[in-house]
Write a structure and sequence with these properties.
With 253 residues, this protein is an alpha/beta fold. The chain has one domain: TIM Barrel. It is 36% helix and 28% strand. The chain contains eleven helices and twelve strands. The longest helix has 11 residues. The radius of gyration is 16 Å and the shape is globular. The two termini are 17 Å apart.
Length: 253
């Protein structure tokens, strides 16, 4: 049976890990290098590293801190932020990433997904989608949740998969940092629409939120969170023990 993955997320700004609410009011937490080492040791299944201001600043992802972080990680590492070309994929992969996450760059040029998948394989291409309800419709946002693209989220996710994306990260802006649970309705709609792995992001506040996620939307492959892990509110080993006790397949440490 395929285990459900638990994935901490490092939102990096100016070389430091930060976290906010609804993608705003960012607070500095720690060094990505130190946190990466910690999560690799305590049983995280994968790790995500986002340079969260690369796209909004119109610059390329910082590679020095990425290299230092990758050196501490012995689990799969997904990296995103400012990915606008296949050359950006190449640069990030050479820094130690296993997978590359595209968001705003793919919205500007959807062929980026196809070209990257053809060169590196679909398993390397992760489509990250920032989604918010607008008048009852799931809308896609760009530039770190700043710009409403007008795109309907489920249609865009289907298009991304058809172009070659091998995995989808669904970031709920509505639930981000609120800690009241994942957006189960949105995640169920995404899982019904595509047949590639789906990662849930935004809203985790306690162990029960992860249990509810995997029980209610069994098609979800992984749960991603940031502050609850960074602040020690949820212990990854304890979370996995609770998952196993509830019959949710998990890789135990």
């Amino acid at each position: 049976m395929i285990t459900k993955r638990i994935i901490p997320c490092l939102d990096v700004r100016d070389g430091r890990v930060v976290k906010g609410v609804h993608f705003e009011s960012l607070r500095e937490i720690s060094s990505p290098v130190d946190l990466a080492k910690h999560y690799s040791q305590v049983g995280a299944d994968e790790l995500v590293f986002y340079d969260i201001t690369a796209s909004s600043d119109g610059r390329k992802l910082f590679t020095d801190i990425l290299r230092q972080t990758a050196e501490q990680v012995f689990i799969p590492l997904t990296v995103g932020g400012g990915i606008n070309s296949v050359d950006d994929f190449d640069r990030v992969l050479k820094c130690g990433a296993d997978k590359v996450s595209v968001n705003s760059g793919a919205l500007k040029d959807p062929s980026l997904i196809k070209n990257a998948a053809l060169r590196y394989g679909s398993q390397c291409v992760v489509l990250s989608v920032d989604v918010k309800r607008v008048d009852g419709v799931f809308r896609v946002y760009a530039r770190g949740g700043r710009d409403n693209t007008g795109r309907e989220a489920i249609a865009w996710i289907r298009e991304g998969v058809s172009l070659g994306a091998g995995e989808i990260v669904v970031n709920s802006i509505d639930t981000d940092g609120v800690k009241n649970g994942f957006d189960l309705e949105m995640l169920a709609a995404v899982c019904d629409a595509v047949d590639v792995p789906v990662i849930a992001s935004g809203g985790a506040g306690c162990v029960k939120d992860f249990l509810d996620l995997f029980k209610t939307v069994p098609g979800v492959d992984a749960g991603l969170a940031a502050s609850v892990f960074h602040w020690g509110e949820i212990s990854i080993p304890e979370l996995k023990r609770e998952m196993a006790a509830c019959g949710i397949p998990a890789r135990l440490c």
